[in-house]
Fold Cyclin-dependent kinase 2 homolog.
Amino acid sequence: MRRSALRRPESLTDKYRILGKIGEGTYGMVFKAEAYSSGLLPRPSGSASASGASAAEDEEPMTFAIKLVKSHKEGKNDVVLSSATIREIKLLRELHHDNVVHLHDVHVDPREKTLALVFEYGDHDLHDIIVQSKQKPLGEYTRKSLMYQILKGVDYMHDAWVMHRDMKPQNILVVGHGRKRGQVKLADLGLARIYKEPIKALSDVERVVVTLWYRAPELLLGAKHYTKSVDLWAVGCIFVELINTRELFCGKEVEGSNAPFQKDQLDKIFKVLGMPTPQTWEGLENLPEYNHVVQMGRERKYPTQSELKNAVKVGPGRAGAALLDLLSRLLEYDPETRITAKEALEHEYFKEIVRTSVKLKQ
């Protein structure tokens, strides 16, 4: 092959124009970017893939979120990625749904030895929306649309035998512009797992999943086998947060411990939902941390029945009753009787679902 026919590998900035940094964490950095490949932006001079393509006048440049993944090097040439990153890439290449974030591109820069994951861009996460709604409350139909779309995404993942395992407002994106405005996207699948029945036991190095405030009680009590219902408990917590504009169960985590039991978090749950018993939760007494439940019951008096209706700002009448029933079934102690995403989508509360744009500040 002639030397003139060889092209140097494209760098990330050959393909995308970086607009600015939008986030940073233990995983790496996230940037907002536009694609040159759409033909809607002039490419940098000398780019390996420069094209004279033109775009329709009414089209807008495609916007993406680029996660520049942290890695560590072993030797001169090998770059090692975390298992969470590898898992997220594998899963997102197989998942295709309107309510699950789309992985547009995986870019490897052989010169810099870096990896970038290119996702469709979500202008806001659900946490942003909840904060905004403290000043300007969401309309009932907008809130219902958000809830419905979250369940649609969870239902799709569960049908594909995937548990998200880290459902929380920060991991739920909402598109704020264009034709997809108001569309919900489940994101951040770093803790997601393909599962089978029966669920394999948790390993000792993976005893804690799901962010504390959204962690199901069976996980807090050391269950070594758990099901997709852990996602539905988290969804119930998220729905209450959408309604109340504040978290429902804000326990203080014991730092530096890999043990599943978190007393303060369970205390917050028991105060609202009452103290569970082997009669109301079959198999409770068999959970590894059950002795802590007994001890907590001796230390203080908890309600014997759920007081969720006093903790959630639901409206009056049939609609309010339907919403409270849905929340109660999502926040059911027994994972075997907790409502599934598919069942929740058929719940009376969603009988009249109106597709609506989510109005957000730009």
The first helix runs from residue 12 to 15. The chain has two domains: 11-120, 124-350.
